[in-house]
Design brief:
By secondary structure, this protein is of the alpha/beta class. It folds into two domains: 14-150 and 338-357, Rossmann fold, CATH 3.40.50; 152-332 and 365-383, Dihydrodipicolinate Reductase, domain 2 (2-Layer Sandwich). It has eleven helices and 14 strands. The protein has helices at residues 2-12, 35-45, 62-69, 82-87, 106-114, 129-142, 156-167, 204-219, 249-252, 337-350, 359-378, and strands at 26-31, 50-56, 95-98, 118-122, 146-149, 173-181, 225-233, 258-265, 269-276, 287-291, 295-298, 312-318, 321-327, 382-383. The strands form two sheets. A nine-stranded mixed beta sheet has the order 13-12-11-10-6-9-8-7-14, covered by helices on one side. The radius of gyration is 21 Å and the shape is globular. It starts with a helix and ends in a 6-residue tail after the last strand. Residues 11-16 have low confidence and may be disordered.
């Protein structure tokens, strides 16, 4: 076991230098120029084979200001909608980043794919499962790359979780507890698009819950979800005292600030999940993965920041003796996770590769979010049926 762990750590700590071919430039557009678009443009600016040529936003003048503020010149922004931008044949777009609010993810993604443009779609995939299926249909018909924005997957500590599961050291996985969140962290500093139903659709569930689900589902091979019993609440979001100086936000709050669920997965696996933007405790608990041969504890973080909260531990009984094996933190000094996300997407586009974070996996993530929301509304367990695309 120790030898396997050392070998895995050595592999993870290797730095692979990737030479970027700048002879072929990729022409990129950005749809939606809110907060998260800033991270996308920062990454694109660091890519020597990218030209940012277009951008659009529903708010007149917002896109032009965004590119000016970010020091990117010569970008066409005189579009009233994503449709106008994607219809402009003079752009010859290779790819777009979709950085709109949640409820506007599906429509521009479908249209871009129909126009033959590769798509980097920010998380969550969509708000509903039905929307995700429609996007996947457009993806399949187009033959283009659709990758979903789950950059925590590219953290070597996250990848170590999957290596541990794949090694077989835990045996058959039968129970997982995961989640996390913030003691006080409703994201209103970025305006109200995160908290209004008409723009967000889902709250903590979609914002950080999708990350937490991906961490464990990816580790165990993304088994199909079968049923879910879900719960949502909005006690903090609806409380005016939550927003010093902006008590009116409480009236606008229309999503979840806490959610929990009991999910049955294919293969006899139970997933116990909870996520929060606000709660009266520091953490709802560490992530644990229980198997027939061993268990793995993954320390929680303060706000679910895309990595692990400290050294992980593997618990095993060997020869009648109980052991705890610490998995050291991998200190990676390479590119940021966001840069890796963008680079992996660009490479897939450039070299006709596969999506780094494929919709075929994330549709199960979305099905769980959708199931939690439906179950919470109905007050009982619901079955999950993911149509074939």
């Amino acid at each position: 076991m120790a030898e396997k762990m050392d070998a895995a750590l050595d592999y993870a700590n290797q730095k692979v230098e990737t030479k970027i071919d700048t002879n072929r430039k990729l022409r990129v557009g950005i749809i939606g120029t809110g907060w998260i678009a800033g991270a996308h443009i920062d990454s694109y600016k660091r890519m020597p084979d990218v030209e940012i040529v277009a951008g659009c936003d529903l708010i007149p003048g917002k896109a032009a200001k965004f590119f000016k503020d970010n020091g990117v010149e010569g970008v066409k922004t005189d579009y009233a909608s994503h449709k106008e931008m994607l219809d402009d044949e003079s752009l010859k777009l290779d790819a777009v980043s979709i950085c709109t609010y949640n409820r506007q993810h599906a429509i521009p993604a479908i249209y871009a794919l129909q126009k033959g443009v590769n798509v980097m779609l920010e998380k969550p995939f969509t708000v509903t499962l039905d929307e995700a299926i429609e996007v996947m249909k457009a993806e399949k018909a187009s033959g283009k790359v659709l990758s979903i924005g789950f950059q925590p997957r590219l953290d070597p500590n996250m990848q170590m979780i999957k290596k541990i599961v794949d090694s077989g050291e835990l045996g058959k996985i039968y129970y997982i507890q995961t989640g996390g969140g913030r003691r006080r962290g409703i994201p209103t500093p970025f305006g109200t698009s995160f908290i209004e139903d008409k723009t967000a659709g889902l709250g903590a569930l979609a914002d950080i819950g999708c990350y937490s689900l991906d961490m464990v589902l990816n580790a165990i091979g993304y088994p199909k979800p079968l049923s879910v019993t879900g719960f949502k609440s909005d006690y903090f979001g609806k409380d005016p005292t939550t927003y010093p100086g902006h008590p009116e936000y409480a009236e606008k709050f229309g999503v979840d600030d806490f959610a929990a669920a009991f999910i049955r997965l294919e293969g006899g696996i139970i997933l116990d999940f909870r996520i929060a933007w606000a709660m009266n405790i520091n953490t709802p608990g560490d992530t644990i993965i229980l198997g027939t041969k061993g268990g793995l504890r993954i320390p929680s973080t303060d706000c679910w920041n895309g990595s692990v909260g400290g050294p992980m531990k593997i618990y095993k009984t060997i020869g009648g003796i109980d052991y705890e094996i610490e998995v050291p933190i991998i200190n990676d000094h390479g590119p940021s996770l966001f840069d890796r996300k963008i680079r992996s997407f660009l490479d897939a586009v450039k070299y006709n590769g596969k999506a780094p974070v494929p919709s075929s996996q994330i549709v199960y993530n979305q099905a769980i979010l959708d199931g939690i929301a439906r179950s919470a509304k109905l007050g009982h367990e619901v079955e999950i049926d993911v149509p074939e695309v």
